[in-house]
Specification:
37% helix; alpha/beta; 4-stranded antiparallel sheet
């Protein structure tokens, strides 16, 4: 279960949001000011933040959201239904929920926000920067968005990412993933690497490095 920072000012000390989180078994820490949120993120493993915009100021909400984006922490705004007509769209959280809501919906919104920002999670998931590779479910996400790969593309990525820094020759990759008797030759490896790059890389992020006249390796930067 995730660990949540709940940003609110509850008059009686026990809010509906806190009660809902307890009901669904999600751990949380409460802070009432943006500065406290920064300190909490520095001191604890916070997976996401929920902001009750019905009890904190717009300035506080903005500061927390800015800090959350900087730290790549998923954010959920809890918006009272009475405030909906005056909602400030510039807040732009990862998820928005109208309150009061059910505890089940709150839990789903929190997990959706975490998935959208952080992608896959679990013991069999490789996470490299914004790239997540689920070795059990054969799924890949980039910045929380699913990447459509063929089976061979997934195998190639999983092999290289599981051994970052190790250089694989084209012949070794062809042998491990296609078999010695495959007739396509090492050109097949180059084609699959090119397709992978088009799906997971851009000008700012490179994962697959070419070692000229040798092969390829996965790099972490």
């Amino acid at each position: 279960m995730p660990n949540i920072c709940l940003v609110e000012n509850a008059d009686d000390g026990i809010s509906r949001l806190a009660a809902d989180l307890r009901e669904i078994g999600i751990g949380f820490e409460v802070c009432s000011e943006a500065d406290n949120f920064s300190e909490l993120c520095d001191a604890a493993e916070i997976d996401a933040v929920i902001i009750d915009v019905g009890t904190v100021s717009r300035q506080c909400a903005l500061r927390v959201l800015e800090k959350a984006r900087h730290l790549k922490k998923p954010s959920v705004l809890s918006l009272p239904k009475d405030f909906a007509e005056d909602y400030d769209y510039s807040l732009n959280p990862d998820e928005l929920i109208l309150s009061p809501s059910t505890s089940m919906e709150l839990g789903l919104r929190v997990k959706q926000a975490i998935y959208r920002v952080s992608g896959l999670s679990g013991e069999n998931v490789l996470k490299i920067n914004e790239l997540a590779i689920d070795l059990e479910r054969y799924e890949v996400t980039l910045s929380g968005r699913k990447v459509a790969l063929t089976y061979k593309e997934f195998q190639l990525l999983a092999l290289l990412a599981s051994n970052p820094g190790r250089v694989y020759t084209r012949e070794a990759l062809l042998s491990q993933l296609w078999g010695y008797d495959y007739l396509g030759g090492t050109r097949t490896v180059d084609v699959h690497i090119r397709r992978l790059r088009s799906k997971i890389e851009d000008s700012d992020k490179i994962y697959l490095e070419t070692i000229w006249n040798v092969g390829y390796r996965f790099i972490v930067s």
